[in-house]
Design brief:
The protein has helices at residues 33-36, 74-79, 101-117, 139-156, 171-174, 202-217, 234-245, 288-299, and strands spanning 3-7, 23-26, 41-44, 62-68, 71-72, 84-88, 93-96, 121-125, 162-165, 180-184, 188-191, 196-199, 222-227, 250-254, 272-277, 303-306. By secondary structure, it is of the alpha/beta class. The strands form 4 sheets. The chain has an 8-stranded parallel beta sheet. A 3-stranded mixed beta sheet has the order 1-15-16, with helices on one face. A 3-stranded antiparallel beta sheet has the order 5-7-6. A hairpin with a 4-residue loop joins strand 11 and strand 12 (196-199). The longest helix has 18 residues, at 139-156.
């Protein structure tokens, strides 16, 4: 039996690792599955995706689904209007009362729905929104509420990994429940109030790195998302990703919509395999080459196309 295996892909394993080499974020309706499959962890907005093609990522990638803990938009905010305590005009969202057990129940219910839809893990966002509306004297109560939400999400499904966006104030209470921390804007960020991209000041970056030392000492991965305008060049994106990586952080550089494929520390190449072989069978399914090798190549996230 003869067959020739022609690899036209970047051949490297990116299994669903406990400590990822790369993490991608994509909130658009049509995730580019072939490119996202290159990453160990991928964060999507399952409520914004059309179809279920993203489920194929689960073969070799851990898929985290977006879940806003401190804010709500649209129908979600209307359903819980009695729990609204303020507004975030920059994102057209409502800030929720994270100290109310009813909101805890609502978050748990949504998390169950995401898991039932196929999400491997949760990415918890808007953890610091309470600081916009709560009096500073009430921050400790809000932080206890946040800690309770993260703890309850873990207890509801201990096998389900959790990522959090910032949350420095509650880190010591929740670090045992989470896989890592995401932080936006180490060098280049987004000013939601002004609606514009911004350069992070040296003072702000130094403060941020001080906060992140606590996370680093816990031996948890730190993922940095920096934002550049959509018209930024690939070389600019790679240069920024490189600066972030030099700190020991996992970089992701994208535009603020997160609806386009961003940049990590490597280029996205097609991962398609042309499997050339001879056979007496008209149906490729009857040949040993695709049957035996297909499973192996699929393990590496490669798309097998028998010819």
């Amino acid at each position: 039996m003869k067959f020739v295996l022609l690899l036209t892909a970047f051949l490297s394993a990116h299994a669903a690792a406990s400590r990822p080499d790369s993490v991608a974020f994509f909130y658009g309706a049509s995730p580019p599955v072939d490119q996202l499959a290159l990453h160990d962890w991928v964060v999507i907005d399952a409520n914004n995706t059309s179809g279920t093609s993203w489920l194929s990522l689960k073969t070799n990638t851990t898929v985290f689904c977006y879940l806003s803990v401190g804010e709500a938009q649209g129908k979600r905010s209307l359903e819980h209007r009695n729990l609204v305590v303020g507004d975030n005009p920059g994102w057209h969202s409502k800030i929720m009362d994270i100290t109310d057990p009813a909101w805890l129940g609502a978050v748990l219910e949504e998390a169950r729905g995401l898991s039932n839809a196929g999400c491997d893990g949760l990415f918890l966002d808007t953890l610091d929104s309470y600081q916009r509306v709560f009096d500073k004297a009430d921050w400790p109560a809000a932080e206890r509420g946040l800690s309770a939400i993260v703890s309850a999400l873990h207890d509801a499904a201990p096998e389900r990994p959790i990522l959090i966006n910032r949350g420095f104030e509650i880190w010591k209470n929740v670090r045992q429940f989470v896989k890592g921390m995401v932080v936006e804007g180490l060098y280049a960020g987004w000013n939601s109030d002004a609606g514009e991209y911004r350069t992070v000041s040296t003072e702000e970056r130094q403060w941020l790195e001080q906060q992140l030392e606590t996370v680093r000492s816990s031996n948890k991965p730190i993922i940095i998302i920096d934002y550049l305008p959509p018209d930024s060049t690939e070389s600019e994106q790679f240069a920024l990703a490189g600066k972030i990586a030099k700190h020991g952080y996992i970089p992701w550089v994208t535009d603020v919509s997160l609806n386009h494929l961003g940049t990590s520390h490597f280029s996205h190449h097609p991962r398609q395999v042309a499997l050339l072989y001879t056979t007496r069978h008209a149906d490729p399914a009857g040949h040993d080459a695709p049957n035996l090798l297909g499973a192996v190549l699929d393990h590496y996230g490669l798309n097998v196309r028998p010819h």
